[in-house]
Write a structure and sequence with these properties.
Layout: H1 5-9, H2 12-16, H3 24-38, H4 47-64, H5 66-99
Helix pairs in contact: 3-4, 4-5
């Protein structure tokens, strides 16, 4: 089965309630347990149940096909690493932004009082 863009947006392991290292047997067991509760025949008036059942079926197909699972895991790992890099960069950006505030550079805060220039011309003098 080809791993679609829609499937890549989902966490198939969380959907089935299993860990990444789960064996095929565990994947199938989790699928059966979840599929029973949302089967369209048991929930004819609930369109969400049919959608969930379809997602569970797709998750089963991907996670029990070795090639599809490897492809899914590879993309999932790359996304996770990209998110971690982005988080680290965001933290660095926040620190740089904080370090660039006037208070950090030794200037008074905005709205603070400025001392009068003793050499300035005063009106009426």
């Amino acid at each position: 089965m080809a791993v679609t863009k829609e499937l890549l947006q989902m966490d198939l392991y969380a959907l089935l309630g299993i860990e990444e290292k789960a064996a095929d047997k565990e994947v199938k067991k989790a699928y059966r347990q979840k599929a029973l509760s949302c089967h369209p025949d048991k929930n004819p008036d609930n369109p969400r149940a049919a959608q969930l059942f379809h997602q569970l079926s797709q998750a089963l197909e991907v996670l029990t096909d070795a090639a599809a699972r490897a492809a899914y895991d590879k993309v999932r790992k790359a996304k996770k690493q990209a998110a971690e890099r982005t988080q680290k960069l965001d933290e660095k950006r926040k620190k740089v932004k904080l370090d660039r505030t006037p208070e950090r550079r030794g200037f008074p805060a905005a709205g603070g009082t400025a001392e009068a220039d003793p050499g300035a011309d005063t009106p009426g003098a």
